[in-house]
Every structure is written in C-alpha cells, then in structure tokens.
Amino acid sequence: xxxxxxxxxxxxxxxxxxxxxxxxxxxxxxxxxxxxxxxxxxxxxxxxxxxxxxxxxxxxxxxxxxxxxxxxxxxxxxxxxxxxxxxxxxxxxxxxxxxxxxxxxxxxxxxxxxxxxxxxxxxxxxxxxxxxxxxxxxxxxxxxxxxxxxxxxxxxxxxxxxxxxxx
Amino acid sequence: xxxxxxxxxxxxxxxxxxxxxxxxxxxxxxxxxxxxxxxxxxxxxxxxxxxxxxxxxxxxxxxxxxxxxxxxxxxxxxxxxxxxxxxxxxxxxxxxxxxxxxxxxxxxxxxxxxxxxxxxxxxxxxxxxxxxxxxxxxxxxxxxxxxxxxxxxxxxxxxxxxxxxxxxxxxxxxxxxxxxxxxxxxxxxxxxxxxxxxxxxxxxxxxxxxxxxxxxxxxxxxxxxxxxxxxxxxxxxxxxxxxxxxxxxxxxxxxx
Lengths: 167, 256
Description:
Chain A has 167 residues and is mostly helical.
C-alpha cells in the first residue's frame, strides 16, 4: 500500500473520535469518516504535501461535516445529535465532574466553538495545527477557544455555586 | 476578565492549561497563578473541562475500526468503480492548453433579467443542493470540458468559457444545467485540495452593462455577484471572504 494510504489509515481512529464528539452519533460519525476517506483517496493525486496528512484529513472531515450540517438544516426532521454515546466509567479523579452535563453542554455549544475546543482538548493539537485545520488565523482560534471554555463553564456551572464567578 | 497590569495574557493561560508552555514561560504563569486566585480558579476549571472531554470521547480510539472504514478497502472500491480522479487530472492538463474564448453576446431575450436577490438566492440554493453531493455533484464532468462548454453556451444562448481557477487551488469538477426563475442557468463546480467546493452560477440577462462586484451572505454561505454583458453571475462558497473575492475576480476576467 502506498505510504500516503498508510498515513491516512493511521488517522482513522482519531478521525472517528473527532466525528463522534462533534455529532454524538456513532453511525453518523462513521458515515462522515467514510466520506472523508473516499474524498482523501480520490484527491490524493492532487495533494501537495506541504503540511501533515493528519491536518489535511481533519480539514476534509470538517468540510464533510459542515456540508452534512447544511443538508440537515434543509431537512430538519433528520435526527441530529442523538446522544448514543455510552457514558464511560468515571474514574475517581474526575468523578466529581458531571460528565453527562458536559456531554449535554457540548451538544448545545455553537458549532464553531465545539470544533475548536475538541481539536485542542481531545485531539491535543497545537494551536498552530488547529488553526491550520480550521483555516482560520491564530487570533480567531484563540478567541473561539476562550469563548468555548467560557460557554461550557457557564452551561455546566448551574448547580455548582461553590465556584466563584469571574468577570 | 482583566489581567490588568500584568504581562500574563489570556492566551498564556490557555497555553498553560493545554501544556503548551515550557521553561520560563511556564514558570511565569505559575508565579502569576500563585498570586491571582481568580486566574488560578479559571485555569483549574479549564483543566477539568479538558479532562472531562477526554473522558467522554477518548475511548472511541480504543474501539475496533469497522471494516467499512478500511482505507485499503475504500481504495480498492474506488479504483474499481471510479476513474474520475485520474481523468480529471488529465483534463486539468488539457485546460492549460486552451485559451479563453472570445466575447460573443447579444440576442433578443424572451426572458426578463432576474433581480439580484433572486439571482443570489437561486445560486445559493443550487450550491446547497449540489455541493454536498459526493458521487453525483455534476451532470457533466471536467473530463468533457469542451462538451460542457458547448452545451451550456447553447442552452444559455451565450458564449460561456469555463474559468480556470487552478491558480487559486481550485480544480474544475464539472457543471450542470439548472432551471432558474426566468429560464436556464448554468452551474460550474470547483473543488480545492480538501474537497471544499465553490460554485459559479450563471444566468442569461438582458442587461448590457457591467456592475461592480457585490457581496451577500446567506445561510452561512458567501456570495459575490455581478452582471456582465448579457449574463448575471454569482460565485458561492464557504471560503474566507477575501479569498472568494480573488477567485471571483479571476473568474470574471475569464468569462465571456
């Protein structure tokens, strides 16, 4: 198998994770990844290896995801964000965190903020790579990240009055 | 929040949270957090958010990858079922060799010129319908570019030359004929290296004059639209506005 296909293959588990986190729907997430793989394989002859294969794959996945969102806005009866994620077991350290609450908040988070936060927090991309994937300037990335964290905090804070509010 | 007099920025706090700082930069933030409980609280909350998100989604990578997401299998299936990408690459070479067709306009039009609002709405609608298609985005693929150009020129009763936008990283996917409010319309579709698509929508118009480029944003899509002699056009895409404007200018130069 040519090297680029190997490199694409290595990205698949992370692409599935990102798609799952964006959609909260395992079947839909895998559909998006499948579309993404097909596009990447078709386009590989045109790809200029100026960046990493991973960044490129994530960019394609985001395009596929956004196209799908647009299609769904036209046909709103299609289910979106059906929470089918099995709640993972809580370890003791994060036990205090209401994971279900976080999951719910993530679904309510504006798409732009969700895209950024997941690349940074879950995919653990550098800010530079995340900005490249999203095709936005670093400053925009940082302001979206700040807003995402603030929004998530606000949405998960109700019922946790022990936290001081920060202006 | 205000970081006031200090040199630690919110960017630093995020970078610290995400483990992107080392050495002196990291120590500077730690010193700051020791004397600023508000900032320390915030960083702690962000850190817990990261932890919660990893706990929620991290397990996906431990799952076995379903067979339909096998790259080798997808590659095999695409080779068997589709030759478009290689044909399109060949067509791209042919595009280089072709010049821009000369101007040819004007016949009486039975139709009335569409209003600009209608033009943009129809162009955006057509983009939304077809740009998401993976297997059937166009009626005529780029490997039949000559036919595409002849056919659509005939149906629109205008000489339409398909713009070459490869300087801007966009390859032609193909085109199609569409029904518009006042007759036929043509749509050309382009794709960048990530599969992001831009469409150029053209309808015949009675207007002989040129207009400047105008800009509209509709349904999260950007559109630049203009009228030239005998045609009204709209370039639609989900691209940074400046880039879309450059692409539009390039298309405008080559059209008709």
